What we know:
The complex is a heterodimer. Chain A has helices spanning 23-32, 65-72, 94-98, 117-127, 132-145, 161-172, 191-208, 219-225, 243-249, 293-302, 316-333, and strands spanning 6-19, 35-49, 54-58, 80-85, 101-105, 108-112, 179-183, 211-216, 228-233, 236-242, 253-260, 272-276, 281-287, 306-312. By secondary structure, chain A is an alpha/beta fold. Chain B has 13 helices and 1 strand. Chain B has helices at residues 3-26, 29-57, 66-86, 93-98, 103-106, 112-118, 125-140, 144-170, 172-175, 179-193, 202-207, 214-226, 230-255, and one strand at residues 265-267. The two termini of chain B are 32 Å apart. In chain B, 43% of the residues are buried. Chain A binds chain B through residues 15, 66, 70, 73-77, 94-96, 98-99, 101, 103, 105, 107-115, 119-120, 123, 126-129, 155-156, and chain B through 12-13, 16-17, 20, 23-24, 27-28, 101-104, 106-110, 115, 256, 258-260, 262-268. Strand 6 (108-112) of chain A pairs parallel with strand 1 of chain B, so a sheet runs across the interface.
Amino acid sequence: xxxxxxxxxxxxxxxxxxxxxxxxxxxxxxxxxxxxxxxxxxxxxxxxxxxxxxxxxxxxxxxxxxxxxxxxxxxxxxxxxxxxxxxxxxxxxxxxxxxxxxxxxxxxxxxxxxxxxxxxxxxxxxxxxxxxxxxxxxxxxxxxxxxxxxxxxxxxxxxxxxxxxxxxxxxxxxxxxxxxxxxxxxxxxxxxxxxxxxxxxxxxxxxxxxxxxxxxxxxxxxxxxxxxxxxxxxxxxxxxxxxxxxxxxxxxxxxxxxxxxxxxxxxxxxxxxxxxxxxxxxxxxxxxxxxxxxxxxxxxxxxxxxxxxxxxxxxxxxxxxxxxxxxxxxxxxxxxxxxx
Amino acid sequence: xxxxxxxxxxxxxxxxxxxxxxxxxxxxxxxxxxxxxxxxxxxxxxxxxxxxxxxxxxxxxxxxxxxxxxxxxxxxxxxxxxxxxxxxxxxxxxxxxxxxxxxxxxxxxxxxxxxxxxxxxxxxxxxxxxxxxxxxxxxxxxxxxxxxxxxxxxxxxxxxxxxxxxxxxxxxxxxxxxxxxxxxxxxxxxxxxxxxxxxxxxxxxxxxxxxxxxxxxxxxxxxxxxxxxxxxxxxxxxxxxxxxxxxxxxxxxxxxxxxxxxxxxxxx
Lengths: 340, 268
């Protein structure tokens, strides 16, 4: 096994897009005199991932997460910089590398829509040159681990999204990859299924030592699965630290939406900021460092007439904004130039 | 990996996808039967057109008699059917490039082009394949040489049609959506395959031996069916291999410019 699973230095990717004004005349002009604009999707990223790590690669939409993962897996060619995954060049040795990596793209399926997963598993096993006897055993183990027994003969089109994602993850493990790339694996899933997928990923890492590289803009994925978080925004890495620290610094706020059976007016409480109150619904943010979430729930229930409570993580955009503002503050206090 | 091993690996992959696609088609047995037999009936109407044409005009049109026209029709139909049974994605490559659907294939260890081409099948194409077979059985009888060249023409035609479609779709990497151009190129091929070669002017016949390789798909196999020439046959195989090699080269050159995408996709 190589010392580092992933090594990237000065990795950059630029897309060229056509700029077109509004209206028919602008479209006609663009046909004869096209104007192009360069979009810097990823800008000089340095990154090292070691064996057995579970890394969250997070950021808002368009930050460069998927582009980076696609360069790591050989789908896209970097414009500059160097990258090695399992000591292989993803572009030149794409085919060799693919035997050692697994990928799950939440938005793209590798299963045949009209066929039961068992058929897709058999085809994928053959594509990855897994011996039929070995493949059969692996399918049986994965089916048990991912609770797919009843689903193996059901056409994928008849499955729920959560069932399909479980099958997708299982399909990506048929060739026992050393690194698993997960791009938004929990996108569109409900809370219960999200939790199940997160547990499976954690167990896979603990039992097999599989290195996990996960992109998400769901703060819950980071909090519950990963040990290290890398935050990317506008194609640049803005933070790389243990999740424990990230959690303490930035994931310490929860948003509570509460609905009452009759009109209610909530009074402020230390550690609880009331964003909206009056009428039947209220919205609060809780700083869990000051006041644990359980206490706030008891306080709300105690105030009487609660019809429904929802606890949410703050959106990734809010976390990124908090990261930037804290970086700006520290840069300001140490006399450094502020981020534009 | 040796060339022989590479070739065997490609055939294995085609076989694998064929079995999965067939299983997928069987999920909708009624639609499969209706589409396949509907295509046989639809194609069948052209036999009457040619039968009437030969009765009205005379025994030969453009140097071909009725059985010759039926031979080129049979080869064209079966080649089109075979290409669309085995490589139906040849009609969708532009869309796959634009919507970023090549990602799935780039993540797998096997040939990207073969995997892309084989990942889809066409149900109605079985009707085209069957129609060609029926036509050759009805019009060529027990002529062994005609049967042999029918099967050779079918294979060569399917490969050439696919090669031209792949090359045209590859332009999407450079120019944006080339699906219309690629669709037209396949239509052109079919149109130049189903009429006697002699009706076309000289410059069109040059096109038919270059950009639109109808000559190599059906007209040379017909000539070989009537009078076999091993040298001409070897030349035909070489030229066909060259078209495939060029399509392969263009596709992989273009693939370097692939930009992926984040559209939500499923595999049908």
